[in-house]
Design goal:
heterodimer; A: mainly alpha; TIM Barrel; 3-stranded parallel beta sheet; 17 helices; 9 strands; globular; B: alpha/beta; 4-stranded mixed beta sheet
Chain lengths: 369, 361
């Protein structure tokens, strides 16, 4: 009991939590106490501001060599539903975004590990985007994709990243981290980057001054201990590099996944999702932002997450395909006005940001178009 | 702002009653988690760790209604394509079918104000149901329906209620209260019971020994002040009679109503805040209901952390809210309610419509 009281006091005072303390709080503390402490932690990082950005998602391909059991998006080579965008397709999408999305500041590209495509294709994709929208940030390629590029090109991780940066890459998204525990990865994603490889990419990117996000995919076969340990692994990396901009929790959607056919997976509740956001905010005392991705959580729960420590609602995503393939129900378009309303109602100041968390002057931005 | 919340917290923790100004200050604050845990503290003190649910069937006898309230998607004229009226036999058949589940012991009967049905018809329905299913607990008729019966029968509120109770009615649901403010009612629901009438029905029922529920329909054209005044009106009634069992917040669902074009549904943020503030203001009402039909189960479960201790029931057959396009399921199994209550760290308590506990899990 003493330990529990001690853990509560530390959380309330904003002191760094140990693994055992975090576990104790996660299992025993009232959910709204966690929320209140997490909200105070949020305020230490971002005061009364809550961020959003105006972006466009592009998923280049769904044909994938990994075929992770956790995924509802990918298809195997030869599948009739398989697609890959040509450079001309990419150019069309970006031009359309430039026309239809005033003030867009980010193109977000995440894709499958596509067979039969050379690394140079990805360089060309980045160059294509950059040539059409030179002022936007290109946040692209999870560390899992970077490891794949290194394998298909025979280049080092560092060289792959350097070439992408030269082409115009600004930041890496946080995906593919899943749970950084190889015992879990063997079951949920056996054929993609290991924990060590994921961490190596992130570390290298940070050394090259390319910020990344970090994520977790939770609510499948992992234990609570593994879930929390993942956060501590991220905290350790951040202590070393300081290169994570934001942490993004991804609740697992079992629908259409092989994992759910093989294992009995209890769907996550809003209760669990909000509790996890709060504990993540408390554990990750060195990561500035916590993004609650409205596409996965629904608008309502994303707004509520602002009372549980989140400070970022992500963006006005267009045409997101990966999560919708797994049965997420939120629509795929959101307006700036709607995001601002959600934030204001929660008592915070809406701040439009770019991929690197610089606030954006809307007026300036719209003049470009 | 925090200052006001600190003062309110001190009052709540020492068990002092909150004022109108406190209620408004709570609405002004956006510290949702803090308001929530204050409400949770009060919930623990007033109602303990049980969360009540019942295994129940909703029966909406007819949707033909002379009310034509602007916020309603259910009621219609007799000539409408949607119009339906259940015969006595079809009511009995529905109950018989639902009663194949041995746990199903509660009926919730709420209906349109039918222009042609005589008062005796309702009396007869209750008598027949009670006669055919003597184990069934009967909750039926909002204060608005009772006033309608008074008007069509020429009897007094007391006579109508006494006769219905004698026929087998055990308790009344909380609907029809909307916002107890006649300026608002004139705009929204001019053809039905006034505030004073609604209150008089509840008061009379309580005097006759019958408990009732109370509700609030919010998120339409009312102000925060009107919400708080509504809660205070109910608190005064409860001080006087002690007959209110549970309080239900109904967020207004604009879809398919006359207000659809001008009002968007209030946010879940507002829903949880309203739940918590209701728990804090209504310090003399034992139960606060998170009605999952309107909130959806995931949000109703969250509401259990924001002051609620009643999650309604399995709700077979509900038509009124579903007419307004709510996205929740048509009914839930008992097990899914039990699982939600347990995940929220509380004790599921199955009860009848008068909150007598049948079993816990």
């Amino acid at each position: 009991m003493n330990e529990f009281l001690n853990a509560q006091q530390k959380a309330r005072a904003g002191r760094r939590l140990s693994f055992d303390e975090a576990l104790l709080l996660y299992e025993k503390a009232p959910i709204l106490f966690l929320a209140e402490w997490a909200r105070a932690a949020k305020k230490r990082h971002s005061k009364n501001e809550v961020y959003y950005n105006i972006n466009r998602h592009i998923n280049l391909s769904n044909t994938c060599t990994a075929n992770c059991p956790l995924c509802a998006f990918s298809v195997e080579e030869g599948d009739k539903n398989g697609y890959i965008l040509s450079l001309a397709n990419v150019a069309d999408i970006v031009r359309k975004a430039a026309r239809e999305v005033p003030g867009i500041t980010e193109i977000h590209i995440v894709s499958s590990l596509c067979p039969n495509v050379e690394f140079s294709y990805y360089i060309d994709v980045v160059k294509t985007v950059k040539s059409i929208l030179p002022q936007v940030n290109i946040q692209a390629f999870t560390p899992v994709e970077i490891v794949h590029f290194a394998k298909i090109s025979g280049l080092s991780i560092k060289k792959v990243l350097q070439l992408l940066i030269e082409a115009g890459l600004s930041a890496l998204p946080g995906g593919g981290a899943e749970i950084l525990d190889d015992a879990v990865r063997k079951i949920i994603c056996p054929d993609k980057a290991t924990s060590a490889e994921w961490i190596d990419v992130v570390r290298t990117a940070h050394l090259l001054k390319i910020p990344t996000n970090a994520s977790i995919l939770y609510g499948h076969i992992e234990t609570i201990e593994q879930r929390l340990q993942h956060l501590f692994t991220l905290r350790d990396i951040q202590d070393e590099t300081g290169g994570f901009n934001a942490f993004i929790p991804f609740p697992f959607y079992p629908h259409n996944t092989k994992l759910a056919q093989k294992y009995k997976i209890k769907p996550l509740t809003a209760w669990e999702n909000l509790k996890f956001i709060a504990i993540a905010r408390l554990i990750l005392d060195n990561i500035a932002h916590l993004k609650s991705f409205w596409i996965m959580l629904s608008e309502e729960i994303a707004q509520l997450s602002l009372a549980f420590g989140a400070d970022d609602l992500d963006g006005t995503v267009g045409e997101e395909k990966i999560i919708h393939a797994a049965g997420a129900k939120a629509g795929s378009l959101m307006t700036r006005t709607r995001l601002s309303e959600m934030i204001t109602q929660a008592g915070y100041i809406p701040v439009e940001r770019d991929s690197l968390y610089h606030s954006v002057d809307n007026f300036q931005n719209q003049k470009h178009l | 702002m925090n200052n006001a919340l600190d003062m309110i917290e001190a009052k709540v923790l020492s068990g002092q009653r909150l004022t109108r100004e406190d209620g408004i200050a709570l609405y002004d604050s956006n510290d949702l988690a803090r308001i929530g845990y204050l409400a949770d503290t009060v919930r623990r003190r007033i109602s303990g760790d049980y969360v009540y649910y019942d295994v129940n069937l909703h029966i909406n006898l007819t949707n033909v209604c002379i009310g034509q309230c602007k916020f309603c998607a259910f009621g219609c004229k007799a000539t409408s394509d949607r119009a339906y009226s259940l015969t006595k036999q079809s009511v009995l058949d529905r109950i018989a079918k639902a009663a194949s589940d041995p746990d199903m012991k509660n009926l919730h009967i709420v209906s349109g104000l039918h222009p042609d049905w005589p008062y005796e018809y309702y009396l007869d329905i209750i008598k027949t149901i009670k006669h055919t299913f003597p184990d069934m607990h009967l909750k039926g008729f909002t204060g608005v329906e009772i006033m309608h019966f008074v008007k069509i029968s020429g009897k007094s509120i007391r006579e109508v209620l006494s006769e219905l109770m004698e026929a087998g009615l055990e308790t009344m649901p909380g609907g029809g209260a909307e916002i107890l403010d006649d300026d608002l009612r004139k705009k929204l629901c001019p053809n039905k019971a006034t505030s004073a009438e609604w209150l008089e029905v509840a008061r009379t029922a309580h005097k006759l020994g019958m408990k009732t529920n109370a509700s609030m329909l919010y998120g339409h054209i009312e102000t925060v002040e009107q919400r708080i005044d509504h809660l205070l009106t109910l608190r005064n009634l409860q001080d006087e009679t002690g007959g209110l069992q549970t309080f239900i917040c109904f967020p207004f669902e604009p879809k398919n109503t006359q207000l659809e074009s001008c009002i968007i549904r209030t946010s879940v943020w507002d829903d949880l805040k309203t739940m918590a503030i209701s728990r804090l203001i209504l310090d003399n009402v034992h139960n606060i209901k998170a009605y999952w039909v309107m909130l959806t189960l995931p949000i109703a479960m969250l509401a259990l952390g924001f002051g609620a201790n009643d999650i309604d029931g399995t709700v077979g057959g509900e038509k009124i809210m579903h007419a307004a396009g709510v996205s929740s399921q048509k009914s839930l199994t008992k097990n899914s309610l039990i699982a939600a209550i347990k995940e929220a760290g509380r004790i599921p308590a199955e009860c009848d419509c008068n909150f007598n506990v049948v079993r816990t899990f």
